[in-house]
Amino acid sequence: MKIHRRTLLATLLVSAGLILPGLALAQKAPPAPTYPPSVGQMVGEVKKQIMTMKMDEFKAGIEQKTVGKIIDVRQENEFEDGYVPGAINVPRGLIEFRIWGELGFPKEVDMKQRLTLYCATGGRCALATKSLMELGFTNVVSVDMKFADWVKAGYPVTKPKK
User: Domains, the chain, ranges and CATH?
Assistant: First the structure.
């Protein structure tokens, strides 16, 4: 009987030794970005050249209806998982081409209208904001937030109807 207990105890200890490190890793910070530091530096420089707002300012602006058109620049599949209510999806990689149809082109587009952009972590929307400014838009703001923090805060999220 003692042999069985020792075997059982040894098996449990070995199993715990294999499982517990995996659990500890799962609770650590997310992995590092899969791009070189120069990309983060570029985004940081762009953020110095554009207007930005934090998540709480964005939420307040939505409630006060001062954010204008809300543009989600994430990829379509990210948008389908949920988005800020009222947002339209114009992926960052296509924004220079698709934004016009969203703003009424071929009719004259108001280049002074307020556009507020967000994405998953604040990088793509910063770059998209700069692109829109280079096209001549004068009232573009980038939301410097993580969409996951928006969700975690319990702020409203809409999912597309299927």
Answer: 39-152 (3.40.250.10)
